[in-house]
Amino acid sequence: MFQLGDEVTLYSLVFVLALLGTRSPVWSTVITTSLCLFLAMFRFPLVATSRARQVLHPVAGKVSAVAHRGGGHDAPENTLAAIREASRNGATGVELDLEFSADGIPILMHDETVDRTTNGSGPLSKMSFSELRRLDAAAKHRLRSKFVVEKIPTLEEAVKECIKLQLTIYFDVKGHPDEAAAALKDMYKRYPVLYNSSIVCSFEPKVIYRMRQSDPEVLTALTHRPWSLSTLGDGTPRFSSVWKHHWMTMMDILLDWAHHHLLWKLCGVSAFLIQKNFVSQNYVQYWAQRGVEVVAWTINTKVEKEYFQEVLHINYITDSLVEDCEPHY
């Protein structure tokens, strides 16, 4: 449920900033009113709470454990083998990364290159699907002797496998907003069960907004890690330049504010995927008051899982369903 206090805070802040910038009450009022009209005209409403609950909690009253990249610690990530292994290990759902081959075939892959996970080398943008299909997606996995010659699957192959195994799908879209929206819209059209068993997620608000434009009935979520512009996943600064680091830190503050006060509302998301270190009971309550569920990532130890299940009662994304492990960034 959207809170009136949010609107007051948002428009008050915009008015004050506009007043500081223009020194004109008239122009400040015009700018603030324009923002108000823009949001009223172009924001998407939240999908019905009952359907969001069905997707996020397919087992009523139970926290969902979602296998990150299909459970990349337990099986080669983003493969059909990973999806099957996640199901065997008791996952409620799987998070899968959507990418595209050079000839436009939607596939599962996290990186922009094939180097880290396969026996090949090179960027996806320069490799056709037939070339990608010849690669072994298990070649560099710690359990490669168990998973012999895994192929890079198409999006549709993964969708069909998840439907067969009754797994909820968290589609993680890294970019390509137009192509991703078109590919996913086609999947939802061909497999309508996805409306009640999947959610589209992205770090990029434009991807989510484009998805809602393409099909307003699709459940969506924004993914966020505070300080992501200025630091890497392990906390290391992205830039050696002090000036650039401080500049990107300021951008991080602005981006974080936008996610929590503007972008979620504009996109009409039903969930907010947030890095685990920033989750607390107050944070979960903040989003609950707005009708948005929190999903934490990446939860990889037994102690953490118990905390998110028993104390916070929220869904979590994990690299392993069977043992403690280091996070995959």
UniProtKB/TrEMBL annotation:
Q: Which CDD domains match?
A: GDPD_GDE1
Please report the stretch or stretches of sequence annotated as the GP-PDE domain: 63-329
Q: Which PROSITE patterns match?
A: GP_PDE (PS51704)
Task: Report the family membership.
Answer: Belongs to the glycerophosphoryl diester phosphodiesterase family.
Report the protein name in the record: GP-PDE domain-containing protein
